[in-house]
Design a protein that fits this description.
By secondary structure, this protein is an alpha/beta fold. It has ten helices and 17 strands. Strands 12-15-14-13-16-17 form a six-stranded antiparallel β-barrel. 43% of the residues are buried.
């Protein structure tokens, strides 16, 4: 038994998780690799893919790395639990006129829960992933903070993790740049992996066409929603659309509508199958409400707490004031922000530390 302990490492077959496992192995941990099958590409219509997770090539890459370095590797099929929760929520959110973030939901409710469950069964002390994020203990709390490589930082997608998960999690890449990870992979003999392109698609939408996914997975959806009205804020009808679930707040391209000026989706009203359009200034909002709050750095949000709030993954964040309101948090921005989309995650930061996060309600 290793003095450092036994760690279950989630291995997708990609460079980040592979390097994470090998770093921990070299550091003296007793490593067990596990690859989670969340989705069947053939079922999604995507066929065999060279990049991404959940395909045979990725499984083989992960297993090969484990074999070469002498630690065990398992494949865990969680398609049923993944599909019931993540995919159903994905569909339901679009049907409700919102824009979901399935990766956040999967991390929070599926992958880490599955990892902890199997870690316990295999008598592992820790779990580890290849996410670019840091975790430290302070004031008896596990605190998530941004990675050294801000271009790869993934703290935004991990806001929903509980203290129990974080207390047993290791993130070997938090203090590394992506260029350093690629060089390390090459130095370890994985030159092909070091130059392998990465996939940023949703795993169960391999062609990156969520509209097609909805059409294939919701019986009669296209027939039910096709032909709704495009309207302006004052209710003036300006055209017909293909169905409200196929549009998102802030969308400009693909409207197939000649207005003589740029217009954007500013609101979606599922009850009437209506998509509201407006000019760019109509996307600007100074307030929003967030629900489903999970606290990371502190136990609670105090009235008037200052934070930098991110409303999407690539958002640099905006200065704001947080005000608790029962189970909700009201966010008031110092300056109006663009394209707040209900269903997306809002994550609150204090410097590099994650205060907490939730789901944008309105």
């Amino acid at each position: 038994m290793s003095k450092k302990g036994k760690v279950l490492v989630a291995m997708s077959g990609g460079i980040d998780s592979t390097v994470s496992a090998l770093i921990l192995h070299e550091q003296g941990y007793e490593v067990v690799g596990i690859t989670m099958k969340t989705w069947d590409y053939a079922q999604a219509g995507g066929g065999k893919k060279e990049t991404g997770c959940c395909n045979l090539d990725s499984f083989n890459d992960a297993r090969q790395a484990a074999v070469e370095h002498g630690f065990p590797h398992y494949v865990l099929d969680i398609r049923e639990e993944f599909g019931d929760f993540v995919i159903n929520n994905f569909v339901e959110e679009y049907i409700a006129g919102r824009t979901p973030n399935p990766c956040v939901l999967c991390n929070t409710h599926i992958k880490w829960a599955a990892l902890l469950k199997r870690a316990n069964a295999l008598n592992c002390d820790y779990i580890a992933t290849g996410h670019y994020v840091k975790v430290r203990e302070e004031n008896n709390r596990q605190i998530i903070s941004k990675a050294k490589d801000l271009t790869k930082d993934q703290s935004y997608v991990l806001w929903g993790l509980g203290q129990d998960c974080l207390s047993r999690s290791i993130y070997p890449l938090g203090d590394m740049l992506k260029t350093e990870v690629r060089q390390l992979a090459a130095d370890m003999g994985y030159k092909e992996l070091a130059t392998k392109s990465e996939s940023y698609e949703i795993c169960f939408v391999p062609d990156n066409d969520y509209r097609g996914f909805l059409k294939r997975n919701v019986d009669g959806l296209e027939e039910r929603v096709n032909g709704g009205d495009f309207v302006l804020a004052d209710g003036t009808k300006v055209g017909k659309h293909k169905g409200y679930p196929f549009y998102t707040i802030g969308q400009r391209k693909g409207l197939e509508l000649a207005m003589g000026k740029p217009v954007y989706v500013t609101n979606i009203i599922p009850e009437t199958n209506t998509v509201v359009l407006g000019e760019v200034d109509e996307l600007q909002k100074s307030e929003m409400t967030v629900q489903g709050i999970n606290m990371i750095k502190y136990d609670t949000i105090t009235p008037g707490m200052e934070a930098v709030t991110k409303i999407r993954y690539r958002d640099p964040g905006s200065s704001s004031i947080l005000t608790p309101d029962g189970d909700l948090v009201k966010v008031t921005f110092d300056h109006a922000v663009n394209s707040i989309a209900p269903g997306q995650s809002a994550v609150f930061y204090e410097g590099d530390d994650v205060i907490g996060g939730g789901i944008i309600r309105r």
